[in-house]
């Protein structure tokens, strides 16, 4: 007899009561991206000046790196022009002991955190996959496969918490990256483990050519947080002060044991995805022009001016520092890197296998023969 | 067998009692965790339940949830989190519940785990052990019997090992956990409950990764094998005696790094070789092994190197798996085809 055939006025027993664990409302993001610049809010003048100096450096770095692609010195450069506020705020909000997990677009975040400007470009120059020692500045290698750095950040933060260290991990990801499975798995792990990790989505409008509307139907990317049981914060990604404050708050919260936060910074990728991309095929010049008006440097300059914090001295100091960075980058990138072919066999394993030793011997013999031929000529 | 051989942990006397491979694996993790606080176990159901095969049984109880952690159900998340944990100095031991459920983690495995040391020029070694219950013969439904070693072998930066004995299960897992490189640790499911006299008090010395073991010496031909096919080959060697064959059995134990030395020394002695494994032959481990033997032992070979492998099909349903898995008869048949009278040269065949 099936349930439908039950005689009489049979009623199902009430199911065991289960209620949502918490009220979701406090986890929901604001309707408007959070802003500080131009609102008259109390702000630390020293911080504003530091952000300014770093934004100027970041812009100059982006320009120099892009120029280097045109000279063939860099294989590719995903520019963060327009997104410098996120890059800089991410680097400045972290304490020295914290970790940054960048994606391929976040070279300047790494540089702002202290990574050598040339070493930060190794991946994109093509002389090695990662040019720096991640432990030195606590910056993970720039990560090319989308969103795969997010679970790493969670694992590291989790391990740090287990060790009793008050270390926080900040992971950067693009809007397109939020569609990847690793994004989901990382956020879920982080929330379940209450790992001290902060996720910063730089929503720059496009994943290569695909606009956000084709990437997700969520009300905002910050809204995704509620499903994992963590707060979502929406912030104007071109407002360096606002991004800095929101990240600092989220990092503090994580450090105090409050668990992870998802931050969506609304920004725009002013330049093409990379030099290999033609952005005019998928977006209108008017849109780019509108965002140029909302440039992170312009916003901060206006704020500094209105507070009378921007005199010629401040501007000159910032620009000089940026020029020095660019000149140093240009000079060192114009040197041809010396690469030892035999290093191909280094660091594949802690101890080289006999197979690799044989292959190394083969290459060495080829190189010797080449050398001998060169001498004969 | 001594019935008084209780696990007193005194380390003396080396009293031996039958232990299963599963127990030896548990013991290996337990000892590693007790010796080194950096060793953490994580995966699906590894905590309270002790794993679906009970291989992590008791670890959460003894070491706490933080050292033996039930994770959300997400293989990429598990392995990705292990990467971060290793970056912070831990030595994660990850359990993938079944061979085919490790595939969602391949992205992490291939894009990061295998190459992090290389990418960072040695700055970020990842001492992660990835335990994969693998292979068939247990009547599992689809996705519970894959032999995935060829995928792992084809990825530089990973070690790939597969124990076939209870003692090796302990020794190799200790070695894997101690390794500063990521190790794919393939656990032949159908040998989990195989027993041997094995002393938990005084375990055999840790087997170095990369060394094969000659399980049986012989003169007629070498059977090169590993994991679940080792007992099959030993049985074949016994059965071959009635044919007048004296077969040598080499248990590779480690597929990467590969022990050319032991394999080639054996084949040079016997002049004939059959490679035996469960996974498909096309593009499978046997092709690589046969090629290595041919390259190094050509002048010693009396016959081509033959392979006895699973068919090149998706792993079949349980009711058909006995037809798929290489068994004693198929190996015997291959040995027969090794042509003891060097008939390959007849009729200008060469
Ligand atoms: C797993 C994976 N799939 C595809 C790509 C190729 N790819 C590189 S960047 C990119 C778009 C990413 O967009 P988004 O996450 O929004 O970051 P953005 O480039 O805008 O900073 C794609 C598809 C990749 N790097 N990784």
How would you describe this protein?
The complex is a heterodimer of chains A (377) and B (350). By secondary structure, chain A is an alpha/beta fold. The model of chain A has no long low-confidence stretch (mean pLDDT 94). Helices cover 45% and strands 8% of the residues of chain A. In chain A, the strands form two sheets. Chain A has a five-stranded parallel sheet, with helices on both faces. A two-stranded antiparallel sheet of chain A has the order 4-5. Chain A contains 14 helices and seven strands. Chain B is of the alpha/beta class. Chain B has twelve helices and 14 strands. In chain B, the strands form three sheets. Chain B has a seven-stranded mixed sheet with strand order 3-2-4-5-7-6-12, sandwiched between helices. In chain B, strands 9-11-10-13-14 form a five-stranded mixed sheet, sandwiched between helices. Chain B has a two-stranded antiparallel ribbon with strand order 1-8. The longest helix of chain B has 15 residues, at 21-35. Chain B is globular and about 60 Å long. Chain B starts with 16 loop residues before the first strand and ends in a 14-residue tail after the last helix. Residues 1-14 and 342-350 of chain B have low confidence and may be disordered. The A-B interface holds A 128-130, 133-135, 140-141, 144-145, 148, 150-160, 162-163, 167, 169, 181-182, 184-186, 188-189, 192, 346-350, 353-355 and B 40, 66, 71-72, 74, 76-77, 79-90, 92, 104, 107-108, 111-112, 115-125, 156-157, 159, 179-181, 210, 256-258, 260-261. The complex binds thiamine diphosphate (TPP).
- SSE succession of chain B: EHEHEHEHHEHEHEEEEHEEHEHEHH
Backbone structural class of chain A? alpha/beta
* Mean pLDDT over all positions of chain B: 91
Q: Mean of residue pLDDT of chain A?
A: 94
Annotation field: number of helices of chain B? 12
Low-confidence stretches of chain A: none
How far do the termini of chain B sit from each other?
54 Å
β content of chain A, as a range?
5-15%
Largest interface, counted by CB within 8 Å of the partner chain's CB: A-B, 42 and 48 residues
Q: State which percent range the strand residues of chain B make up.
A: 15-25%
Question: Which regions of chain B have little confidence, pLDDT < 50, spanning 5+ residues?
Answer: 1-14, 342-350
Helical coverage of chain B, percent range: 25-40%
Tell me, briefly, the overall form of chain A.
globular
Query: How would you spell out the order of helices and strands of chain A?
Result: HHEHHHHEHEEEHHEHEHHHH
Question: How many E-type strands of chain B?
Answer: 14
Strand order within the widest beta sheet of chain A:
1-2-3-7-6
Q: How many E-type strands of chain A?
A: 7
Main beta-sheet annotation of chain B? 7 strands, mixed
């Amino acid at each position: 007899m099936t349930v439908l055939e039950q005689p009489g006025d049979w009623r199902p027993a009430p199911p065991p009561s289960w209620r949502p664990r918490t009220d979701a409302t406090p986890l929901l993001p604001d309707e408007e991206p959070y802003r500080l610049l131009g609102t008259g809010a109390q702000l630390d003048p020293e911080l504003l000046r530091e952000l300014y100096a770093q934004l100027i450096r970041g812009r100059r770095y982006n320009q120099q790196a892009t120029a280097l692609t045109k000279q063939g010195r860099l294989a590719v450069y995903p520019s963060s022009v327009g997104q410098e506020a996120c890059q800089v705020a991410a680097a400045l909000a972290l304490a020295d002991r914290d970790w940054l997990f960048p994606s391929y677009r976040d070279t300047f975040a790494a540089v702002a955190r202290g990574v050598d400007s040339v070493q930060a470009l190794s991946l994109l120059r093509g002389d090695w996959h990662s040019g720096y020692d991640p432990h030195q500045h606590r910056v993970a290698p720039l990560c090319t496969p989308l969103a795969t750095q997010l679970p790493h950040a969670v694992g590291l933060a989790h391990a740090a918490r287990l060790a009793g260290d008050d270390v926080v991990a900040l992971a950067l990801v693009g809007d397109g990256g939020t569609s990847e499975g690793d994004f989901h798995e990382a956020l879920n792990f982080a929330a379940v483990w209450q790992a001290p990790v902060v996720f910063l989505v730089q929503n720059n409008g496009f994943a290569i050519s695909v606009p956000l509307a084709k990437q997700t139907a969520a009300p905002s990317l910050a809204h995704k947080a509620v499903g994992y049981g963590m707060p979502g914060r929406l912030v104007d990604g071109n407002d360096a002060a606002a991004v800095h404050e929101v990240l600092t708050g989220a990092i503090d919260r994580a450090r105090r044991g409050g668990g992870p936060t998802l931050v969506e910074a609304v920004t725009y990728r002013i330049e093409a995805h990379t030099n290999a991309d033609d952005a005019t095929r998928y977006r209108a010049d008017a849109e780019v022009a509108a965002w140029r008006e909302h440039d992170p440097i312009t916003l901060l300059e206006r704020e500094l001016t209105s507070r009378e914090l921007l005199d010629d001295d401040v501007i000159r100091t910032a620009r000089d520092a940026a020029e020095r960075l660019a000149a140093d980058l240009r000079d060192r990138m114009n040197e041809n890197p010396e690469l030892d072919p035999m290093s191909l066999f280094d660091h594949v394993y802690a101890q080289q296998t006999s197979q690799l030793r044989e292959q190394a011997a083969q290459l060495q013999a080829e190189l010797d023969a080449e050398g001998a031929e060169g001498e004969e000529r | 067998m001594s019935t008084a051989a209780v696990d007193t942990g005194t380390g003396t006397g080396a009293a031996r009692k039958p232990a299963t491979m599963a127990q030896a694996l548990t013991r290996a993790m337990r000892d590693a965790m007790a010796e080194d606080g950096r060793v953490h176990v994580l995966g699906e159901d590894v905590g309270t339940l002790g794993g679906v095969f009970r291989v992590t049984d008791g670890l959460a109880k003894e070491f706490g949830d933080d050292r033996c952690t039930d994770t959300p159900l997400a293989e990429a998340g598990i392995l990705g989190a292990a990467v971060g944990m290793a970056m912070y100095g831990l030595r994660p031991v990850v359990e993938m519940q079944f061979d085919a459920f490790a595939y969602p983690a391949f992205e992490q495995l291939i894009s990061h785990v295998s190459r992090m040391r290389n990418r960072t020029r040695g700055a970020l070694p990842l001492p992660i052990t990835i335990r994969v219950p693998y292979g068939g013969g247990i009547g599992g439904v689809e996705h519970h019997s894959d032999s995935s070693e060829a995928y792992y072998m084809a990825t530089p930066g990973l070690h790939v090992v597969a124990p076939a004995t209870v003692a090796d299960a302990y020794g190799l897992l200790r070695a894997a956990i101690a390794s500063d490189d990521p190790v794919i640790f393939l656990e032949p499911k159908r040998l989990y409950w195989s027993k041997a006299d094995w002393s938990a008090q005084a375990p055999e010395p840790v087997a170095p990764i990369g060394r094969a073991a000659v399980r049986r010496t012989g003169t007629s031909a070498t059977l090169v094998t590993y994991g679940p096919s080792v007992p099959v080959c030993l049985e074949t060697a016994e059965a071959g005696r009635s044919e007048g064959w004296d077969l040598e059995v080499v248990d590779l134990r480690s597929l990467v790094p590969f022990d050319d030395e032991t394999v080639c020394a054996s084949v040079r002695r016997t002049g004939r070789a059959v490679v035996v494994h469960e996974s498909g032959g096309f593009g499978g481990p046997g092709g690589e092994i046969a090629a290595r033997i041919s390259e190094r032992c050509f002048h010693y070979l009396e016959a081509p190197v033959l392979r006895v492998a699973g068919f090149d099909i998706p792993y079949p349903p349980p009711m058909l798996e006995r037809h798929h898995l290489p068994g004693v008869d198929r190996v015997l048949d291959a040995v027969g085809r090794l042509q003891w009278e060097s008939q390959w040269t007849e009729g200008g065949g060469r």
